[in-house]
Design brief:
Elements: E1 2-6, E2 27-28, E3 31-32, H1 33-43, E4 48-53, H2 57-66, E5 73-78, H3 85-92, E6 102-107, E7 110-112, H4 116-126, E8 130-135, E9 141-145, E10 151-156, E11 162-163, H5 165-169, E12 177-188, H6 203-210, E13 216-220, E14 226-228, H7 232-238
Parallel strand pairs: 1-4, 1-6, 4-5, 8-13
Antiparallel strand pairs: 2-3, 6-12, 7-14, 8-12, 9-10, 9-12, 10-11
Amino acid sequence: MRALLFAAGLGTRLKPWTDHHPKALAMVNGKSLLQRNIEYLQQQGIREVIVNVHHFANQIIEAVEKNNGWGSQVFISDESEAVLETGGGLWKARSYFQEQPAFVTMNADILTNLNLSDMIATHQHNKSLITLAVMQRDSSRQLLFDSSLQLKGWRNQLTGEEKGFFLQENNNREALIPLAFSGIAVYDSKIFSLIHETGKFSLTPLFLRLAETEKIMGYDHTGDLLMDLGTEEKLKKASGLFL
């Protein structure tokens, strides 16, 4: 199985580091986020990794080459000309996955102890198109699931804005379970035949569109360790949790 690490973002919340470096090379206890996530994927049995790059792309490429991929085979999906967001980045990297029955995507700026192997097994057992790692945690944006953890919608907790075909058809909001997306997903490779968005686009609207007709499931890993390392303060906190 292969995985795509999303590492192309500008990392504006991590300034001043990202004025001169890509966020994926921010350090926690002497290891970059990129190295830590490649090693995390190795622990889950994944040693072929695609990394998409844009912001200071040359630094990521140099780090991968200098360290021989930290023991993995690493491919670069180059978005130097224009950052494509997560959906566009996935589409651009599609050639790496079309011969794979399933694959994983993961944000490069998170650290977690999620049991990805179990998540993959659950995805395969459910025969889902997409399985999303989710958990109960504070987040202004929540995905909404039914009791079987099938995706039904999205809600902005601050503004009350909601999206999703199911919400237009059903007023029983109280029956839905709000969970925060953890930035990790498992896909069936047939996803590419169902994408007709082009250019720069994010994944969440794609999830919501496909949920109208396809099986998109949540994998609840509440209780696991998960950190979004988007700020300097969080990087410092992570140093006490990820040794």
